[in-house]
Amino acid sequence: MKSVLESEGIDVQVPDEHTLGIQPMYAAAIGGVRVMVPSSEAARAKELLESVMASPPAESPEDEP
């Protein structure tokens, strides 16, 4: 999510990024992964993430016959 938003010029903060990088199992204990963007970019960020989630996954070279 962070890289998608940053690639579109949206400033992104992931408050627990370092903690989750070291111990990903803590995500549930701290309430999930939070992604923060400026309020002025919130609607655009939501649209971008929804469009990425709705698009089919890219095929990898291993999937080709």
Quick recap:
The protein is built from three helices and no strands. It is mainly α.
In round numbers, the mean pLDDT is: 85
Structural class: mainly alpha
Helix segment count? 3
Shape: globular
Q: Note the run of SSEs as H and E.
A: HHH
Measured by DSSP, the beta-strand proportion falls in under 5%
Rg (C-alpha, Å):
15 Å
**Which residue ranges are poorly predicted, with pLDDT under 50 across at least 5 consecutive positions?**
none
User: How many domains in all?
Assistant: 1
Main sheet properties: none
- The number of strands is 0
Helix content: 25-40%
Measure the end-to-end span.
30 Å
Give a structural overview.
- The chain has 65 residues and is an all-alpha fold.
- The chain contains three helices and no strands.
- It is globular and about 30 Å long.
Comma- or semicolon-separated keywords:
single chain, globular, 65 residues, mainly alpha
